[in-house]
């Protein structure tokens, strides 16, 4: 019973952005199994995530929204409040990445490691999704927490890429966006501490989802990554659930402004 009291989420409402697939889908199911009602917020459908949650005995629904659109986010949050009455937990997971160089010299062989030269428009897109989108969601959700007196938890998806520079792929925009997420998290944690809202970030290493496998990732890149893993493998998405559950639950009641790294030791070397 003690573990249920400190890690359980019964009666809580958890919003998961980008929960239609990959890490977001796995985390949504994990939070549901801990007792939370789940709201999936993403641009496309989340039928499979909702099916898995309902089969596990949980409750979930989908709200369509682009997290980079402030008006759409505010409308989505209003809908969630109308349907669920409150928001206790936000897992800010929606994100994007390009493997592109800042400069490509004439005649340079790129192979499967980097897919060309990044444009300024692509740089702005990555920061818009990964950083600004998380800020927009955080502000909209925190406003409702303050209005309703909810002492909530906001968990922003960062990455070990906010601390280290991945090799051999080039991804300056992604790395910068995740470093920004980490410092934004610390800043909002201090700003909202008086309201009892805790804000933390999660920094995974490489995670074995369909998006980290061919055809989405070149085999040449996978071959370059694996010798760099201290544990000789990627993380399983399910291995992130305990970290998120800790940050979402009363177990982390005195944890705010922190970045929790789950990277199999990658950033140690």
Any key phrases for this structure?
269 residues, alpha/beta, 8 helices
Question: In brief, what are we looking at here?
Answer:
This protein is α/β, with parallel strands linked by helices.
The low-confidence runs, each spanning 5 or more residues with pLDDT under 50, are none
Strand content: 5-15%
Mean of residue pLDDT values: 95
Largest beta-sheet characterization:
7 strands, parallel
The end-to-end span amounts to 40 Å
The whole-angstrom Rg is 18 Å
Number of strands: 7
Helicity range of the residues?
Answer: 25-40%
The strand order across the widest sheet is 3-2-1-4-5-6-7
Number of helices: 8
Structural class: alpha/beta
Task: Identify the overall geometry.
Answer: globular
What's the helix-strand series?
HEHEHEHEHEHEHHE
Architecture overview:
- By secondary structure, the chain is of the alpha/beta class.
- 39% of the residues lie in helices and 13% in strands.
- The protein is built from 8 helices and 7 strands.
- Strands 3-2-1-4-5-6-7 form a 7-stranded parallel beta sheet, sandwiched between helices.
- The longest helix is centred in the middle third of the chain and has 29 residues.
- The relative contact order is 0.15.
Layout of helices and strands:
Layout: H1 2-7, E1 13-17, H2 22-33, E2 37-42, H3 47-55, E3 60-64, H4 70-84, E4 89-92, H5 120-148, E5 153-157, H6 172-191, E6 198-204, H7 219-225, H8 241-248, E7 259-262
Parallel strand pairs: 1-2, 1-4, 2-3, 4-5, 5-6, 6-7
Helix pairs in contact: 2-3, 4-5, 5-6
